[in-house]
Design goal:
Blueprint lengths: L1 H9 L9 E5 L4 E9 L3 E5 L5 E5 L3 E5 L5 H11 L3 H11 L8 H20 L4 H14 L6 H14 L3 H18 L3 H17 L3 H12 L9 H26 L1 H13 L5 H17 L3 H14 L4 H17 L8 H10 L4 H9 L3
Helix pairs in contact: 2-3, 3-4, 4-5, 4-6, 5-6, 6-7, 6-8, 7-8, 8-9, 8-10, 9-10, 10-11, 10-12, 11-12, 12-13, 12-14, 13-14, 14-15, 14-16, 15-16
Length: about 350
Amino acid sequence: MIALTTLLLALPLATPPAQDRIQRADGRVITSHLVSASLSEVVHKGGDGKEVKLAAADVLELTPAAANDLMRSGERALVQRDWAGAANAFSAATAEAGATPWQPLWASLRHGEALLAWARMDLAKAGDAVSALRTWCEANPDSYWLPRARLAQARALVIAGDGDGAANLLKDLSDLVFQKGLAKHLELEVNLERCRAFLASRQAEVAEARLRDLVAKDPPADAARGVRSRILELRGEAQILLGAAIEAKSGAKSAAAYWESLARDLRVSTDVRAAALTGLASAAMADNRLRDAQLQLAEVVAVLDASQEVLGRALWDLAEVTTRLGDHPTAAKTYLERILLECPDSTWAAQARTKLQR
């Protein structure tokens, strides 16, 4: 008996399968085992092994666990900003037979998303990202992740310089979201991305008109807690983008009144307030009030906990105004280096890298 016990203790314990993360529309998070995920239904297995079915509209976000070494390697590489390593690992994982049919599908999507992240740093990769994501969408027209993949494809198209193509793609996606009755936040997210595409294709007037409609809409009264929270977050992004659209159409000085209204609004998020103060500093620069602009931007980057995109713009503008003030009191390149360090995933990072000749 002792020998048998010793033998059993020496055997390696079976590693339980990693659990997938399901965030429901009401804000609750479930860790379970995903069985299938379509545009209409998500099926998972609970702890008792029984299948549970959820309407796709009741699932805010669905994140499978990294189910094998290749997937774990790819996710680590993404965190480390090793785009080539991530893309290669995910690509290899697509060829591995998974425990469920959706695992290679997820690996293929992550491969496309890794290429998109790479394209943000290297424009030459944009075409590869567009191609990979287009292929994924064509192969998986009923996947729960189709809206996510189409949004990524549209972003890749914008990077590749095809803003019109991105806008048309997003129009079709918006129609699909409405027809399928998907989660309410998706319609706003798609239309917000479409406005970014309009701006990228120099259609600032169209973007401004659509953004004014988006920022005026409140979450539906019956929206679940998680959906409501996401809609409010997206509306904040729309408020920031509206200011950018006004600037693109009429100039920084013309946008000052809009930014002032946001800066005074106690209900807006920290990110929106930081963007508003940055917009006001831009108007001061346009009015040649350089020292006022510099002081305001310095306060934004020192005090407000803003997102990478908003902080990136504030640091970029701070570098510009400091250059115009003769690199006083700090060298402008200091702020460009901070963009690379603190905002590596922002659209400003590539511009900072170019300016620093790195």
